[in-house]
Every structure is written in structure tokens, then in C-alpha cells.
Amino acid sequence: MYSDLYNRLNQYYSRLDPHHETWVLWIKGNKTPKEIFEVAIGTILVQNTNWRNVDKVLANLKSQNVFSFPQVLEIKQEKLEQLVQPAGFYKQKAVYLKSLSALFLKYPTRDTLPSRKELLECRGVGKETADSILVYCFQHPIPIVGTYTRRFLARFFAEKNYLKMKYEIIQQELNDNLERDFEVFGRFHALVVCHGQNFCQKNTPRCLHCFLLNNCQYGQLHESNSEIAKIQTLISRKTKKKPSK
Ligand code: SF4
């Protein structure tokens, strides 16, 4: 089922991806040091904001020649806060960027990668961010579980437990059912985000227009079904407030 789901998402979004350029960079193998830097800081900057605002910060950093891990560590905190401002939560995010940059400097060649534990010890790095860094920066095959993943699986399988289930349980399920390849795990995460933004939206999913309608349990059941209504209520209640992923 997961492989089929992955293939269908992949097929559809290879033709329609509103964040095409961003995801192309994130999924690309053999990144240059600058590309790794952009993706790594992007995992922090994108928390609780959109790509447009992240792009503004990236432009700010480029214009001030702060586009490497050593340069982030060298720049004064206040100056970095100013540059990061468009992404919101700029005081916290500036601290997080310095913390992550210090870790990356310990792994300059990328031949060895930081452990998940080390990443989780960085400020502002939660499980989704740590796994995103492992996949998108170090090409390490580990599934990424995000809010979009939980919401999508809860609806697709009509199983509200996905909304609260332990991160590692969902991760294991993806690990057992998808090809163990960094590109597959990275793409699956990206595709589910794209789908969540295009069809499977938080409050009003566009089921009637969705290409997965025939296989999706939520889409097949009427909204008045009590189990479906419970899932939607839980999804609607879940609102992120701080950048702690
Ligand atoms: S049919 Fe509806 S609930 Fe199912 S994946 Fe599509 S948009 Fe989401």
C-alpha cells in the first residue's frame, strides 16, 4: 500500500509541484557545501513560516555574505537576528542557527555524519528537523515524520491514532514499508507536504478533486461519519505555536 501510495504521489507531483525548486534542491544528492548550508539552515528557518519568508532570509544572508557555517558563527547575534527577521521568531531562530552551525563545523567533510542524538541536542532541532537534516544534508536513509504526515495518514487510513502516535512508531512503519533509500524517504516527506498544501488541507481537504479519493478512507466516507468527524476535530485543534521542531 505504501509503495503504491508513494508511486502515485510521485507520479502526480512530478508534474505539479508548487515548491519545485526548493524540493529539487533538498532531494538532490551530492550537494555542494553551499547547498548543504542552504538546506540545513532552511530546516530551521521554515519552522512555522512559509518558503517565501525563508527566501527573504536567504537573500538577506547572501547579500551580507553570511552564507556558510563559520560565517553564521562569526556574525554578531543582533545582526543575525535582523537578517532572520522575515522568517519570524527571529531571536530564537538566530540562536538555533548558531547552535546548528557549531555542530556542522564538527563534520566538515560530510564523510561522517552527526548522530541523531547530537542533532537533537542542538537548540531548535526536534525529531522532524533532525531526520530532515540526516536525509537532505547527509543522504542518510531514515523516514521523516511531520505534522503533514500524521494528518495525511490519519485521513488516508481513517485512523486517528496517527495524530498522537509516538514519532518512532510511525517512522518504523514507513521504514518497513518503503524502499530504504534516502531519496525515497526524502521524496515521500516532500510529496506529503505538497499534497497537504494542495489537496489534503488542514481544515477543508479538497477530497472531491483529489486524485487519491478512490483509495482514501476519509475521502470515501461522508463527513458526517462520527469517526471521520473525530479525526477532523483533532486535526483542527492541533495548532503549532512555537518553533520547536
Ligand atoms: S481524498 Fe481527501 S482526505 Fe483523502 S488524501 Fe485526498 S484530500 Fe486528503
Task: Give an overview of the whole structure.
The chain has 245 residues and is mostly helical. The protein folds into two domains: 2-16 and 145-237, Endonuclease Iii, domain 2, CATH 1.10.1670.10; 30-136, Endonuclease III, domain 1 (Orthogonal Bundle). Helices cover 60% and strands 0% of the residues. Helix 3 packs antiparallel against helix 7 and helix 6 packs across helix 7 (90-105). The longest helix is centred in the last third of the chain and has 17 residues, at 182-198. The two termini are 28 Å apart. The structure holds iron/sulfur cluster.
Name the overall outline.
globular
What small molecules accompany the polymer chains?
A: iron/sulfur cluster
Number of strands: 0
Could you list the spans in which at least 5 consecutive residues all have pLDDT below 50? none
Q: What is the mean pLDDT?
A: 90
> How is the main sheet built?
none
Radius of gyration from CA coordinates: 18 Å
Domains, number: 2
Structural class of the secondary elements? mainly alpha
State the CATH topology of the largest domain: Endonuclease Iii, domain 2
Number of helices: 14
Short description:
The chain folds into 2 domains: 2-16 and 145-237, Endonuclease Iii, domain 2 (Orthogonal Bundle), CATH 1.10.1670; 30-136, Orthogonal Bundle (Endonuclease III, domain 1). It contains 14 helices and no strands. It has helices spanning 2-13, 20-27, 33-45, 51-63, 69-74, 77-84, 90-105, 116-121, 127-136, 147-156, 167-177, 182-198, 217-220, 226-237.
